[in-house]
Specification:
Elements: E1 2-5, E2 21-25, E3 28-39, E4 46-52, E5 58-64, E6 70-75, E7 84-95, H1 103-111, H2 116-132, H3 139-161, H4 163-185, H5 202-210, H6 220-230
Parallel strand pairs: 1-4
Antiparallel strand pairs: 2-3, 3-7, 4-5, 6-7
Helix pairs in contact: 2-3, 2-4, 3-4, 4-5, 4-6
């Protein structure tokens, strides 16, 4: 299991400007730099690191996180979760066999993955919550559910043909989905539960975490630019 270590603090969505270095030394790649907004690093065995191995060359290398030269620093997000991390690589070593010279293309392919099955199971989980709140007969809620289910099916279809477009639709859908969930909960959605975080309920977490999904892994604006260039032939 590996996490994706692409972004850096000073470069936002511009992966081509990253500064993390990877130097080939014998049978190893020695990685030095800082990556941020890394999801699930505490559960991963390795990090797929986008680094600069030459003046103009971006590469990807799989760095074991058990290396003592790798430091994980948790980042608390809006919801109070600590699922994001900053990774500091201080001459961490990885086998040269895991090095890919087409790093930017590898990174873009990884970022285009959309887990539609998760979206569908989450949708049906919200349907059950709506029944528990006795709002399954509310025409306004039913209309929003119909919209949400249609979006999940659209994303499923786009996954196979247009993964870049699927990413844009998915992130913006999920932000709206979180708003629907909070609407379903009514006053309960505004109450903080008695836990160490800003919010504790399932749907409060979805609502708060989804606010950042239009920024990660790339902003919706950047992804729209890529769609315009790659699919519509517009100038960059």
């Amino acid at each position: 299991m590996y996490c994706l270590a692409f972004a850096e603090r000073d470069h936002g969505s511009d992966l081509s400007a990253i500064q993390t270095r990877g130097e080939v030394v014998g049978n190893d790649v020695v990685v030095t730099g800082i990556k941020t907004w890394v999801t699930g690093a505490d559960r991963a065995e390795a990090a797929l690191v986008l680094c600069r191995t030459a003046l103009r060359e971006l590469s990807c290398v799989l760095v074991p996180l058990a290396d003592e030269a790798v430091e994980l620093r948790p980042i608390r997000v809006l919801s109070g979760d600590n699922d994001l991390f900053e990774l500091r690589f201080d001459a961490a070593r990885a086998p040269v066999s895991s090095l890919r010279s087409d790093g930017l293309q590898v990174a873009l392919r990884e970022l285009q993955q959309v887990h539609c099955s998760d979206l569908e199971s989450e949708f049906w989980e919200l349907v059950e919550t709506i029944r528990q709140y006795g709002r399954d007969g509310d025409p306004h809620i039913r209309q929003q559910l119909a919209w949400a289910y249609a979006q999940v099916r659209v994303i499923r279809a786009l996954m196979q043909r247009e993964p870049l477009l699927a990413n844009v639709v998915s992130s913006e859908y999920h932000r709206r989905f979180g708003e629907i969930a909070i609407d379903v909960m009514g006053p309960d959605g505004l109450l903080r539960s008695d836990v160490e975080a800003y919010a504790g309920s399932r749907w409060q977490q979805v609502f708060l975490n989804s606010r950042g999904e239009t920024l990660a892994p790339r902003t919706s604006e950047v992804q729209r630019d890529l769609i315009a260039e790659q699919h519509l032939g517009l100038p960059g």
